[in-house]
Amino acid sequence: MFDISVISKGLHALSEVVSGIIVLFVSKTTIVGLSTTLTAEELAEDPHDFFANYVMHSASQLSVSFQHLAALYLISHGLIIGFLVVGLLMKKLWSYPVTMVVLATFIAYQTYQFTLGHSLWVLGVTILDAIVILLTWHEYRYIKKSEM
Predict the structure, then answer these.
(1) Which residue in 6, 14, 20, 141 has the fewest CB atoms around it within 10 Å?
(2) What is the rounded average pLDDT for all residues in the chain?
(3) Mind giving me the DSSP string for 70-133?
(4) Range of the domain at 49
(5) Is-above-0.90 flag for pTM?
């Protein structure tokens, strides 16, 4: 379970770096156009669809400063987590406590962001981070116990 969650977190980190780079260089017009294309069919079927309306609202509210902040956050979060995932997969003892502290820090920031905007994306990432902390703690205790 630990390896699956860490690999999942690693894939998520990679997707964050790629997404951050894309967000950095894509215009708001392109993002709104893509959102419209992706949600058009669903909104035609159900104009009150929560998820489709959420995507459209988020895209239309995007500012350039928020776009740059989002890109910076995605890239930095992805690179940091990616580095830690490599340490965890290589069973480097230092990476377990560092991962837990870093993820706890991200959870604190993400919780703050969630209180401001109630983003389901932020909530999902926060829940995943909490699960990874719990599994990392369990694995760390197991490794420490087996070294004795």
Answers:
(1) 141
(2) 88
(3) HHHHHHHHHHHHHHHHHHHHTT-TTHHHHHHHHHHHHHHHHHHHHHHH--HHHHHHHHHHHHHH
(4) 2-147
(5) no
